[in-house]
Amino acid sequence: MQLTLAASLALSSLAVTSTVLAAGGGVVAALLLAAGAAMLAHGLFVWLESWFSHAFAYRVLGGLRKDVHRAIERAAPMGLGRRRTGDVVARAMGDVETLEWFFAHTLGAALAALITPSVLIGVLTALTGPQALLLLLPAVLLVLVPAVFQRRQRQAGTELRERTGALAVTALDGIQSIAELLSRGRTDALQQQLKDGTAGIQRVKARIAWLRGGEGALVEVILAATSLLVLLALAFQAGEIPLLLLPTLSGLAMAALNPVMGLAGILARIGEISAASSRVLEILDLPDPLDHALETAPPPSAGRADSAPALEFADVRFSFPGGPAVLDGVSFQVPRGQTLAIVGESGAGKSTLGSLMLRFADPNDGVVRVDGHDARTLEPDELRRLVALIPQDSFVFASSVRTNLRLADPAAGDEALWSALRRAALAERIGVLPDGLDGLPGDRGEGLSGGERQRLGLARAFLRDPEILVLDESLASLDPELEERILTELRLARADRTTVLIAHRLRSIEAADAVLFLAAGRVRAQGTHEELLHREDYRGLLASQLPDPPPAPGGRAADEKGGATHGEPGH
């Protein structure tokens, strides 16, 4: 591409010079035709280079976005640590988009900067002698200019990407909490945060502009010195070079440096691109919380032992990397078709138990078994077809009710969808929407109450009909009457379903066949609700909900060492 540009300039220069020197009309016409052809070729190559480079860049970016999504999916939800949603979004979208510029423009520019000067300096050397090799000096200097500013450019680029990510976090938090901010009159504080974040970004951009301006000034000085050098060299050889070639040689000398100058301009953005690349690589390098080496077992349905408990934890220990123990030697069993309530203070490890049941992470030690199979021998997708988790805050997508429900069963028809809604006590509410199942519940379900969002999550579970259902405070926002109705539906819907209720409300706990009492990551006690009521610490946990004084001691709940799940050996 750059060579065709140089050819068109050289031929045009020769044509003009030939005209001035009164060369034959045929020669001038031929030169003009050749120059026109070179210009057309240049335009064609510019288009081809742009098309191929952007096609390549978009293909690479498409693959990179998929890799980033897979990395987030692999690490989520437990492997993302304390990363904030806005920052992850900024990395997955903004930083990846920044890399597009590198893939679309750098490769072609680098090839042009390597090939064009080599060819043109070779031509000039053949025409004028070895002094043309002096052009190598400014070519090298033009490439070295960005290196002089590289460290400061990288620092500024890193700060720019981090500030951009922080601003994205602030904006996302502000949008999601706008009702809370309005009710408390705190929108001014949000506006100030956005203003300060934007001002910080502008300061960094101004610093980057100063650095690029300094690079540009050095480049112009080098080009001016090169022009002077070329003129002096041509003047020195004035008697040896035909007058006809002088303008052409001067143009070729500048054309030799043009792609190098373009590459220098591209390298000026390397600091920001390098920072974006580092932020994306941090996501790609997130560790996988699962050990896939043991995933060799057949699906549980192929090797189920009816005598095995539906769910079993055997001396399970778990901690986050570099953190204290979250679970320490937890052991319990849940027979098939039974309901287990897990209770404990906040931070006791209840939700972590639920996450391990779905294999969002593997335990550091001990074994989690599902239908008698070590969960680590099952592929995550296979395990999650058997076990479903309903979190306290079920996510509602900004789409129709139908689409949100079909997350559980993409092939479900309207009759199945309405049946699931009725079982979740949500059919009447959805029925009054103008478009029914096609109605939009709003962004993240803002058009629904907290309890209605929970019931939408329950409707998904009913539609999916898993063998093991884990409810992590999923009934916490329901009024007592609705809670009772849902608990009854859970019991009647499927007799062989195993249910785990992570709960703090008395009605849910009373509905369970057995209770597991956690404290500081350990099993404090396990047994029936009535048995555990004889423990002072258990009564203290539920004191605000107990209507009457506890009954007189008549038995003791099993402790963590020798107890059965609900008073029966082996359970």
Largest sheet: 7 strands, mixed
**Tertiary shape:** elongated
Instruction: Summarize model confidence as the mean pLDDT.
Output: 77
Helix and strand content put the structural class at alpha/beta
Let me know the CATH homologous superfamily of the largest domain: P-loop containing nucleotide triphosphate hydrolases
- Determine Rg (CA atoms, Å): 35 Å
Give the second-level CATH assignment, the architecture of the largest domain: 3-Layer(aba) Sandwich
Number of contiguous helices: 18
N/C terminus separation: 77 Å
- In spatial order, strands of the major sheet run 6-7-8-3-9-10-11
Helix content: 55-70%
Strand content: 5-15%
Task: Find the count of extended strands (DSSP E, 2+ residues).
Answer: 11
Seen as an oligomer or otherwise, the chain set is single chain
N-to-C SSE string, H for helix and E for strand: HHHHHHHHEEEHEEHEHHHHEHEHEEHHE
> Unreliable segments (pLDDT under 50, ≥5 consecutive)?
4-24, 555-571
Number of domains: 2
CATH domain topology of the largest domain:
Rossmann fold
Given this structure, which CATH class of the largest domain is correct?
Alpha Beta
